[in-house]
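worker-03 picked up job from queue 'complexes'. Input manifest follows; two sequence lines, order preserved.
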Amino acid sequence: MLERLVQQASSYAADIDGLILLVLVLVGFWFLLAEGMFFWLIWKFRERPGGRSEYITGKEKHLKRWISIPHALVLVCDVFIIIASVRVWYDVKQHLPQADETIRVTGQQWAWVFTHPGPDGDLDTPDDIQTVDDLYVEVDKTYHFQLESRDVLHSFSVPVFRLKQDAVPGRRITGWFRPTVTGTFDIQCAEICGIGHGVMAGRIHVQDAGTMAQWVTANSSTAAQ
Amino acid sequence: MMARTGCRRAGLGLLVLVVAACDMTPEPGLARGKAVYGTCVPCHGATGGGNEELGAPSIAGLPQWYIEAQLEKFENGWRGAHPLDTVGIRMRSMANALDNPGDRASVAEYVAQMAPVNPEPMLQVGNAQAGATSFQTCIACHGPDGTGVEVLNAPPLVGQADWYLLAQLRKFRAGWRGTHPQDVSGATMRPNSLLLDDAAMENVVAYIQTLQ
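worker-03 finished. Artifact:
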């Protein structure tokens, strides 16, 4: 359902959408029910000629049930939401699957600098490939990213991956993603970071294995020079 | 009846305003340039005097052609695109924000008519006398008095902060600037920067400060 609004292009995008949908349905149901009841009561007890107002303390059992029963049912719904949230949170944020490749993402006012490990697969070696605002990755490959900031708080956000992670100066934060669809997608900064925050946009190019290998070969020779 | 007619007219007026607001392409010129310059103020300052802490140079009074050319380079990624050029990258992002037709020319026109601000010397290094010799190479493009030559795309050097001049010389030498194939004027400057070691750069910058 949500993929009609924003494409799902990572292995965990559908899980996050499922969680959002679960919250939307459960909270939406209770919201609509509560509002419906509210307006129905307003209508039922509207002013009528000769009608007298009645003082209600709300202490009687048959009145308290209007609160206690929905309360218990909402708590049951909360349990479902908490179980689903913990499961998704563990998969996305706490569990780190084996990486096929590790890249570095550096936020700075107001651009993203990406470091690809190059042909040797290791970061901080002479064949590393650095790009500004354009990140090149291979489809169906698990990437770890080391997220850093050179100046202020930023947030690395790839909407089609349902990925958003704050970058904090002085810290190296590790996360992961696995692209599942080829194409070019938006990267944005999701944390106010100064006057140029609105133009701090990049692109992620998800390519098939052959195209990616060509890109690495073409750019690693430049990087090693 | 009168009230209903009044409401209709007010509604129609509001509709006209909304439709007009949908196509509000700003008119290029000084007024527009002044408005756009508001986004430059946090780094370059209200007077265009620059801010060394942010790496923002003094730009007030620079020629319009030079500012336009540099904005074009930033926007196209010919300048400020090296991953280590933190300050240049910041400027590139801001140049990319000029998305209305004529904004580049408008803000350049506005900056060009600002009163020049001569920044105080910040560097305590360099031998101006020794720098005079190195400066002979610069004369060919920037002129004997360092005021720049438009036909050679050489900007004025006088009136510019010493820290900025030194930083740009280092960027040219490191290949952070003047290496993009489309950056023709930058490509002219880069080989000259390769002739200078650290001391020679400091010397020539010290000499340029004596021209002010």
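worker-03 released lock.
The mean pLDDT of chain A is 93.
The beta strands of chain A are 101-108, 111-116, 129-132, 134-138, 143-149, 154-158, 163-167, 173-177, 183-189, 201-207.
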